[in-house]
Design a protein that fits this description.
The structure is a single chain. The protein has 4 helices and no strands. With 101 residues, the protein is mainly alpha-helical. The longest helix is centred in the last third of the chain and has 19 residues, at 67-85.
């Protein structure tokens, strides 16, 4: 899977739908999408949504209760939901309904 291309499609969707402005994408989404793409670099790549979200949360493991961790997981889950709904990713990438755990 070309995750960089998938992120670009998500960006185009968010901007053309009017959900976010370019400045919002740059401020809120760009750093989170970069961290998401980093999960697919290296030997231990996630194979499903749960593994990916766990990797995203682990980035802040030394800072419990960190709002950035919550936003990263929420943004990643929204991205995955969109990609699955567009049939760009398979069902194994559907995030769990409850993200709190």
């Amino acid at each position: 899977m070309d995750w960089a291309a998938l992120v670009q499609r998500y960006k185009a969707h968010k901007l053309t739908s009017g959900e976010v402005k370019e400045s919002t994408w740059e401020r809120h989404y760009t750093p989170r999408m970069q961290l998401l793409r980093q999960a697919f670099v290296g030997a231990a790549q996630p194979g499903d949504a749960v593994q990916l979200l766990e990797l995203q949360a682990a980035h802040w493991r030394d800072r419990p209760g960190c709002r950035s961790r919550r936003l990263q997981v929420q943004t990643s889950a929204a991205f995955l939901r969109w990609a699955v709904s567009q049939r760009l990713l398979g069902g194994e990438w559907t995030p769990p309904p409850q993200l709190s755990s």
